[in-house]
Amino acid sequence: MSNSYQRIDRISEEVRRETDAIIREELNDPRIGGTWSVTRAEVTGDLRYAKIYVSVLEDDRREALMEALKNAKGFIRRALGKRMIIRYAPELIFISDKNIEYGVHIAKVLAETGITEEKTDDEDKES
Questions:
Q1: 112 pLDDT band (50/70/90 cuts)?
Q2: Does residue 79 or residue 4 have the better pLDDT?
Q3: Which residue among 31, 88, 99, 120 has its CA within the 20 to 30 Å range from the CA of 66?
Q4: DSSP characters for the chain?
Q5: Whether residues 85 and 29 fall in one domain
Q6: Quick one: pLDDT at residue 59?
Q7: How far is CA 70 from the centre of its chain?
Q8: Beta partners for residue 17, in sequence order
Q9: What pLDDT score was predicted for residue 120?
Q10: One domain for residues 91 and 110
Q11: For residue 52, what is the domain's CATH number?
Q12: pLDDT score recorded for residue 115
């Protein structure tokens, strides 16, 4: 892995951390609440754009939270520029990340199949 990729990865992680902190500490929007997390950030090689992936656990809060973030992206970008020492604060693109929700769903499905397999095994033993 070359140094430029490592640098972009470090910057991406720093953008993720700082964006999460800015949203939690500096935004006073009532739509931002519930259980959510900034899961990752992908900064482009020229540092002009950053895709920010946000996971929201509650389905009914996802749309409102994503709308609040899109409305506040200028504020978040300026705050990010003040916190990080980079020439340009990247343009932020917020994306709803459903990976955690999908993982919870898969775990639930696996748990249900585990229960039915146990019952089947128990029934086989009784026969």
A1: confident
A2: 79
A3: 88
A4: --HHHHHHHHHHHHHHHHHHHHHHHH---TTS-SSEEEEEEEE-TTSSEEEEEEEES-HHHHHHHHHHHHHTHHHHHHHHHHHS--SSPPEEEEEE--HHHHHHHHHHHHHHHHHHHHHHHHHHHH-
A5: yes
A6: 82
A7: 14
A8: none
A9: 55
A10: no
A11: 3.30.300.20
A12: 65
How does strand 49-56 pair with strand 36-43?
Answer: antiparallel
Task: Give the pair of three-digit tokens for residue 27.
Answer: 């935004």
**For residues 116 and 26, which has the higher predicted lDDT (pLDDT)?**
26
- Same structural domain, 92 and 103: no
Into how many domains does the chain fold? 2
Q: Residue type for 39, please?
A: T
Domain that holds residue 78: 3-96
Positive/negative CA dihedral, 10, 45, 66, 27: positive
Please give the share of the chain, as a percent, with pLDDT higher than 90: 55
Residue 40 has phi, psi (to 5 degrees) of -165, 165
Co-location of 77 and 107 in the same domain: no
